[in-house]
Amino acid sequence: MANTDSAYGFSPKGPLLRQQPKDVLVGYGTAIFKGDLVSAVTAGSVQAAAAGDTVILGASTAYSAASTVASAETGTALMVADHPDQLFMAQDDASETPAMSEVHQAANHVAGTGSTTTLKSGHELALSDAGTSTGGFVILRAVDRPDNEKTAVNCDWVVQLNVGEGLLTLAASV
Description:
- The protein has a six-stranded antiparallel β-sheet, with no helix packed on it. A five-stranded antiparallel β-sheet has the order 2-6-5-3-4, with no helix packed on it.
- The chain has strands at 11-13, 19-22, 37-40, 46-48, 56-60, 78-81, 87-91, 106-112, 122-126, 137-142, 156-161.
- The protein is built from no helices and eleven strands.
- The N and C termini lie far apart (45 Å).
C-alpha cells in the first residue's frame, strides 16, 4: 500500500497541552497556515519557520492571512501550540524510504507552501536528514494506523520539539 502524498503541516497529536496567542512580525506579509511551524523573531513576535530553523516555538493551530495584522492588540493573534512536551504528527517529505532506524533521531522540517483552498500547511518532516543534523524535532514513532505504511514514503510520524535545539537555544538577535 502506498501512502497518500498530502502535506498537512505539524498537528498536535494526543491532547493539546497548551496554545498561546502570538503576535506575527509586523509587516511580515506572508500567510501562516494551520500546521505551519513558527519561529521566534525580534520584538517577541513570530513568523513561519524556514526549513532547518531551530528557533521553533511550536505549530500554528489557525490560519493567518498575509494581509492580517495578527496581534493581541487587535484581538487577532495567531494561536500556537507551544508546550515543550507537545507531541505533533507530520508527514515525511518523501526524500527517502522510511526505516525504523529513524526513530529517536533528530530531524529538521521542509517549509512547503500551504494551500489557500484548505488553509493547511505544506510543512513536512525532512526525513533525509534524520540523524545527520541537530534538527528541530525528535522522531518518536510512526503513526500507528492501518493506512500508514511505515516503510513507504509520505509516512506519518509522531515527533516532539527537540527542546535542546529549539526553545533553549535562541539566536543572539532574539
